[in-house]
Design goal:
With 209 residues, the chain is α+β, with helices and mostly antiparallel strands. The chain has 2 domains: 158 residues, no CATH class; 38 residues, no CATH class. The chain has 7 helices and 4 strands; from the N terminus they run H-H-H-E-H-E-E-H-H-E-H. It has a 4-stranded mixed beta sheet with strand order 1-2-4-3, sandwiched between helices.
């Protein structure tokens, strides 16, 4: 929670599912450790009631990747499954957030995850990904940048202390990469993609001008 406060997270929702071992096998996670339907139900409640009647505009998840830790991938897949089920309810009373996925790996081409079609990312001639530059300087701080914040978060999050050397000394990553999921286009809500484009444009303008 301390690391979350550093980046301004105000509410935390704990799902209490186990992470007993490192494995890329998502089936093992779902069959031996996580209660899929319970997690989806919890996601459902969080999306509908976690931010009051206004709901959430944007949901950022772990981008599913076959090379990722299985628990990371499953968390993203179950979030997408929840969004899909909420869309199928077709209720005017439910605010469904736009969902994008952040990649934990540096990607040089649009990601694919053939194991689950819900993880398909949207592609057109102008937009394939959105980037957040970790080398942007903090306002009125000539030295500290967003890479520094990652180091602060790793130090605060006790179980991730081993990441500090990688994040603070060995990292050559300049950008975080985010991808817009095709599932957002199901309701023909043309403003969803525009909202994400405008968000990342505003972030760039704040730091580059």
């Amino acid at each position: 929670m301390g690391s979350g406060r550093i980046v301004g997270i105000r509410k935390f929702f704990f799902y209490d599912q186990f992470d007993l071992e490192y494995s890329r096998d998502t089936n093992s996670v779902l069959s031996k450790q996580w209660n899929k339907e319970w997690v989806i139900g919890r996601f459902h409640d969080t999306i509908r009631h976690g931010n009051g009647a206004r709901g959430y505009d944007l949901m950022i998840i772990m981008l599913p990747n076959v090379n990722s830790h299985g628990h990371h991938t499953v968390s993203g897949l179950l979030a997408l499954e929840t969004i899909s089920r909420l869309q199928q309810m077709k209720s005017a009373d439910i605010v469904i957030p736009t969902v994008i996925g952040g990649s934990e790996f540096v990607l040089n081409q649009p990601p694919t995850y053939p194991e689950n079609q819900l993880a398909e990312v949207f592609r057109n001639t102008t937009v394939n990904e959105f980037r957040f530059n970790l080398r942007w300087k903090l306002i009125d701080a000539p030295i500290a940048n967003y890479q520094t914040i990652l180091c602060w978060m790793a130090a605060e999050h006790k179980t991730q202390g081993g990441l500090i050397p990688e994040l603070c000394t060995d990292s050559t990553r300049d950008n975080e990469q985010y991808f817009y999921f095709t599932i957002n286009e199901r309701d023909s809500h043309s403003s969803r993609l525009l909202m994400v484009q405008e968000l990342f444009t505003q972030l760039a303008n704040i730091h580059e001008h």
